[in-house]
Write a structure and sequence with these properties.
Elements (H helix, E strand, L loop, with lengths): L1 H22 L11 H6 L4 E6 L5 E7 L5 E6 L13 H6 L2 E6 L15 H14 L6 E6 L3 H10 L4 E7 L11 H7 L4 H7 L1 H17 L1 H11 L2 H7 L4 H12 L5 H11 L13 E6 L7 H10 L2 E7 L10 H13 L7 E2 L1
Parallel strand pairs: 3-4, 3-5, 5-6, 6-7, 7-8
Antiparallel strand pairs: 1-2, 2-4, 8-9
Helix pairs in contact: 1-8, 4-5, 7-8, 8-9
Length: 343
C-alpha cells in the first residue's frame, strides 16, 4: 500500500509540475487545414470573432453557406476540425454545418469562468455575426451533448430539432451519476472531486501525448473503445483526420479540456425539463465510454424525446457516413411529434 501511494504521489507531482506549464500554453497561430486536406474538403471555412470582453471565439463550417443550418457541438477532446468527418454528407445534402469551439479548445480563448451558459451565448453571438438564419437544428456527440442541450434551453426560439448521441446527462438530476461512471470504469468524475491535482495531471498527460506521441495516443484510444469502434478507426485516412482533431483540441494546452469536463460533470445551470424541442437520442449498445443509463435518464427527463439504440455499434458510430446520412435526412424530412413521448 505504501509503495502504491508513493508511485501515485510521484506521478501527481510530475504531472502537476509539467501540467501547470502545458495547461496554460498559448498557441498564437490559429492554423487552417494543411494544403493536402484543404483540397479534399473544399467547402471547409473557418474564422474567429472577438467578443466585447476580449475573448476570441473560433468557428468553422462545412457544406454550402446557403444550406439549411445545423450547429454541431464537438466532443472532448475535440475541435473545429471534427467537422471534417461530416463534410461529404453536408455537401451531398446541402446542409451548412457550423461548429463553435468551446473555451480553451483550438482557437477559442480559454476562460476559467466558462460554463454551459457561456457556450450558448457565444454560439448565438457567432450565429448573429455570421447572419445565419434561424430556426436551426443541433447535433451534439459525446461531450457535445450538454452544450447542445444548453443552447436549446436558453434559445428555444432558435431551435427546431436536436440529435444527441452518446452523451452525458445532468449529474444534478441523477444522484448516482458518479457511481455509474465508476462502475463503467470511467473514474474521471471521482478523481476530479477527490484528487483534483491528480486529475489535472492526467488530463495534461493526455494532451501532451496527443502532441508529442501521437502514435501512442492513437493506440491507447484503440484499446479503450469497442471492437466496432476499432473497425471505424482502422479505415483508410481515419487516423490522420482523428489525430488532427485531437491535436488541435490541445493546441493551447489542457486547461480547456479539463474545465470542460468539470463543467459537464457538475449540476448544469438549467433543468432538462427546459429543453422543449424534440430530441432524438442515439446510443450504441457496445459503447465503452458513456453508460447507457445516462441516455435512458435523458430520455426519461426530456419533455419530448425518443431513444434509439443501435445494435453492434459503440461510441464512434456518428463517424460513419450511413449514420450521418440518417441524421441529416431526419432533419430534412421534418419531425413527426407522434414519435416522441411527451412526459
Amino acid at each position: 500500500m505504501k509503495s502504491e501511494f508513493s508511485v501515485q504521489r510521484c506521478l501527481t507531482i510530475v504531472c502537476v509540475l509539467f501540467g501547470t506549464w502545458f495547461s496554460v500554453l498559448v498557441n498564437a497561430d490559429c492554423s487552417s487545414l494543411p494544403d493536402d486536406l484543404a483540397s479534399q474538403y473544399p467547402s471547409y471555412q473557418q474564422g474567429q470573432i472577438t467578443r466585447q470582453d476580449g475573448r476570441v471565439v473560433s468557428w468553422a463550417r462545412v457544406g454550402p453557406e446557403n444550406g439549411q443550418p445545423i450547429i454541431y457541438a464537438h466532443g472532448n477532446p475535440g475541435s473545429r476540425f471534427e467537422l471534417l468527418f461530416f463534410h461529404d454528407q453536408a455537401v451531398a445534402q446541402h446542409r451548412a454545418i457550423y461548429v463553435v469551439e468551446r473555451a480553451g479548445f483550438g482557437c477559442s480563448t480559454f476562460s476559467d469562468e466558462y460554463s454551459l451558459v457561456h457556450y450558448a451565448q457565444d454560439t448565438d453571438f457567432v450565429m448573429d455575426k455570421l447572419k445565419v438564419k434561424r430556426p436551426l437544428d443541433l447535433v451534439g456527440w459525446s461531450s457535445g451533448g450538454p452544450p447542445s442541450f444548453a443552447y436549446s434551453a436558453y434559445f428555444p426560439e432558435n431551435v427546431q430539432r436536436v440529435i444527441v448521441a452518446s452523451s452525458y446527462t445532468n449529474f444534478g438530476e441523477l444522484p448516482d451519476a458518479v457511481a455509474i461512471m465508476k462502475a463503467h470504469h470511467r473514474k474521471g468524475p471521482v478523481l476530479s472531486e477527490k484528487a483534483p491535482r491528480l486529475f489535472h495531471g492526467l488530463v495534461w498527460l493526455v494532451g501532451w501525448t496527443s502532441q508529442h506521441l501521437p502514435n501512442m495516443y492513437y493506440k491507447v484510444t484503440e484499446k479503450e473503445v469497442s471492437d466496432s469502434d476499432r473497425v471505424i478507426l482502422e479505415k483508410n485516412g481515419m487516423k490522420a483526420l482523428f489525430m488532427l482533431n485531437q491535436e488541435e483540441a490541445f493546441a493551447q494546452g489542457s486547461a480547456g479540456a479539463e474545465l470542460d469536463l468539470e463543467v459537464q460533470w457538475r449540476p448544469w445551470p438549467f433543468a432538462l425539463s427546459q429543453v422543449k424541442t424534440p430530441v432524438l437520442l442515439m446510443y450504441g449498445r457496445e459503447d465503452k465510454l458513456v453508460p447507457m443509463q445516462f441516455m435512458q435518464h435523458l430520455d426519461q427527463r426530456l419533455p419530448h424525446s425518443r431513444l434509439q439504440l443501435e445494435d453492434k455499434e459503440g461510441h464512434l458510430f456518428p463517424l460513419k457516413a450511413s449514420y450521418q446520412q440518417k441524421m441529416l435526412e431526419w432533419f430534412t424530412q421534418g419531425t413527426d411529434m407522434a414519435l416522441f413521448v411527451t412526459k
